[in-house]
Amino acid sequence: MYLIALLTNGMEELSDLKDLQPEDVNRLVKYVKDSIPGLIDFGIKIIIALVLFFIGTRLIKLVQKLICKAMERHGSEVGAIQFVGSFVKAGLYFLLIFILAGYLGADTASIVALVGSAGLAIGLAVQGSLANFAGGVLILLLRPFKVGDYIIEGTYEGTVDKIELFYTRLLTVDNRMVIIPNGILSNNSLTNVTAQEKRQIDIRVGIAYDSDLKKAKDLLQKIMDQDDCVLKEEDTKVFVDSLADSCVQLGLRCWVTTNDYWPTRWRMTETIKLTFDENHIEIPFNQLDVNIKENAVVNKAK
Questions:
Q1: 3-class SS at 192?
Q2: Which of 149, 182, 205, 244 is most buried (most C-beta within 10 Å)?
Q3: pLDDT digits (tens, 9 = 90+) for 125-176
Q4: What pTM does this model have?
Q5: What mean pLDDT is predicted for residues 55-70?
Q6: 199 - beta bridge partners?
Q7: Distance CA 50, CA 298 (A)
Q8: How far apart are CA 115 and CA 94, in angstroms?
């Protein structure tokens, strides 16, 4: 504020430069000389403020780190730690800027009033962002998912990498980052694929009607029994699912841990194909037969 007043007075003095008389020049020189100590003092304040800002940023990082470490020791989830860390960082930066503004001579009461008015206006303008913030709080309280879970929301899916103040970051299987607003995740339906410790594998395979049905079922049961990842304490099932137009549809179901789900499913699918080929069990596929009527072709040619 001091610098603004100083510059304003200086501009008023310089505005009458064309009408200067010798005594005016002396007065201007005296004004500049008198202003130099004030400028030096304000310059020193600026330098000190920059040093304090540098130290303050380091302290903010230290406080944020200490809080996160304390939450880790108490067994808090990674998502909650990330969210609280972001909130603490934003609050401390605001406090630091407020303190430095007061140190430089700004009217803190006016700043508080200005921030309050601006906060109301900004709140009305960014209702979506506030909804995202509230969504982040709900995610931490209700815990529909946590960092490391694989979730599906609409057309997006991936592993939760970070839960921030307004957004949640997902990493897809091909390592792309998807950023979804917390408001969407808290208000819409989503699927948490890895919420449970185990999952059921459900595979369908068709065999020809003239294939040995009992043998095919025994082979499917054997494949599950010999797989080390299948949970032996859980029931396994082999069944006839349907009698389709071109095949007998068989199904198998077994339980595995969530981490083993996809590797086991892929391995079983390949093993079924190889085993059926070795035992001459046909897996039919749709065919298109084209029959040409010679008489119709001859009559058309005539």
A1: strand
A2: 182
A3: 455 667 787 888 888 778 888 889 999 988 889 999 988 888 899 999 999 9
A4: 0.57
A5: 86
A6: 256
A7: 97
A8: 11
The Cα 269–Cα 224 span in angstroms is 11
DSSP-based three-state secondary structure for 53: helix
Give which of 7, 1, 8 is closest to 101, Cα–Cα: 1
pLDDT tens digit sequence for 198-213: 999 999 999 999 999 9
pLDDT mean across residues, the chain = 81
Q: Give first-to-last CA distance, the chain, whole Å.
A: 105
The backbone torsions φ and ψ at residue 47, rounded to the nearest 5 degrees and listed phi first, read -65, -45
- Distance (Å, rounded) from C-alpha 283 to C-alpha 276? 8
Q: For the stretch 73-109, what's the b/e string if a residue is b when 16 or more beta carbons lie within 10 angstroms of its beta carbon? A: eeeebbbbbbbbbbbbbeebeeebeeebeeeeeeeee
pLDDT at position 25 is 58
177: amino acid identity, one letter? M
Per-residue three-class SS string for 250-262: EEEEEEEEHHHHH
DSSP state, residue 233: T
Q: HEC profile for 7-39? A: HHHHHHHHHCHHHCCHHHHHHHHHHHHHHHHHH
Q: How far is CA 98 from CA 101, 105, 107, 108, in A?
A: 5, 11, 10, 8
Whether the CB-CB separation of 255 and 227 falls below 8 Å is answered with no
Note whether 53 and 100 are within 8 A (CB).
Answer: yes
Q: How far is CA 116 from CA 75, 89, 133, 150, in A?
A: 37, 20, 19, 40
Identify whether the C-beta of residue 139 lies closer than 8 Å to the C-beta of residue 192. no
Q: Domains in the chain and their CATH numbers? A: 2-125 (1.10.287.1260), 142-192 (2.30.30.60), 198-278 (3.30.70.100)
